[in-house]
Amino acid sequence: MRRLVSTGSPFEKTAGYSRAVVDGPWCFVSGTTGYDYATMQMPPGVEEQARNCLATIRAALEEGGFAMEDVVRAHYYVTDRAYVDRVFAIVGEAFGDIRPAATLVVCKLARPEMKIEIEVTALKRDREGG
């Protein structure tokens, strides 16, 4: 059963995407930037942006019936190599025990104020049996 998850961001309607799509035991969370969607403000620092990304991702996963522990794949996109170690410290806090397969890419993002974008894929498993 396919279900769409929204954060209510105006970008979702404008660009024609969902924050997440749940399909059976899978949850695919779209690339998520560091906006605080309650205020539609982008903090200036990559650390704050990374924390906002993770909070939005966590909320989308929970709305879809998933948890951070279900994440099996993560992609991190940063706009400057200088951000790599700072971002690793933050995503390491979130995923250190979960240890999804992950990739980090240094690239340009859609808007100049965006310093990081994170997308994840989650698979719901039996928590008892693995």
TrEMBL record:
Protein name in the entry: RidA family protein
Segments forming a coiled coil: none
Domain of life from the UniProt record: Bacteria
UniProt-listed CDD domains: YjgF_YER057c_UK114_like_6
Organism of derivation: Chelativorans intermedius
InterPro entries the record matches: RutC-like_sf, YjgF/YER057c/UK114
Pfam families tied to this protein: Ribonuc_L-PSP
